[in-house]
Design a protein that fits this description.
Order of helices and strands: HHEHHHEEHEEEHEHEEEH
Strand content: 15-25%
Number of strands: 10
Helix content: 40-55%
Distance between the termini: 39 Å
Number of helices: 9
Strand order of the largest sheet: 1-4-5-6-7-10-9-8
Length: 286
Amino acid sequence: MTSEITELKKEIKHLRLLLRSQTPDLKTMLARHGFFIYKKEPEDDLIIPANASMKRRFYEYLKKYSFRLFLRDVIKHQESFTSDDVARYATKEVAIQYISFLMKAELIEPIPDNQNAYSLIKKPVKSFGETLEWFMSELIKKDFGAETIWGVKFKRHRIGGDYDLLAKIDSSILYMEIKSSPPKQIYDKEITAFLDRVIDLSPEVAIFFMDTELRMKDKIVPMFEAELKKRYKQHIPVERLERELYHIKKKIFIINSKESVEANLRTVLNFSLFRKKEIFSTGGDE
């Protein structure tokens, strides 16, 4: 049974790749919406190995929530850190294992005259944000046979800022806002900007993703409800899909990393794109 499921997944991915080759590319689809790419995929703060084999291993490591938290601490202490400094969210043994991998990947190096301390080779790095966007882009590309771009700026004057991730899945556009900060560091203006971009681009599906295992119901969901009420002067429900996955009219989704990023994305995309679509409206139920 397991082998049959594996083969079926391969066949579905193959069919999606065929469909992708027979429909316009993502750049063309965006242009049809009036969006023309100005800049994309910046590398100022991107931390990934140069070696292709190590890059693949790095991608697999990034699927672990503990490794992503570990990397945030490495960036926080990028000038000098010990295993104790980066072991807040993993055991010291696991942190040492992660340090060993980053050494092999040539992303960190020992500090001379202090073999117990390490330094990030590429610095300064402001945040984990670009690396997280790269990872999410790779994940959607590999798992769903999608065409993706991240860190996108457009030649448009109406809505500013970056579109963290855009993807073409089958013949649909996906837009994802990617937050590496915990909920306590998210503010109203970020919800406002996200919804402005959704309305401006009008993708088939939009995802507000937070790389945290904390509850969305406590702060993030109420912030969306308040913003929707302010915009449309009526209650538009933010409904639970399952666990910490929420949706607005089956088009806008609020998700976190609880369980796994891959599983949560699969749940959302199965619900939104790979089923009968319904038209999004700011009014009542269709």
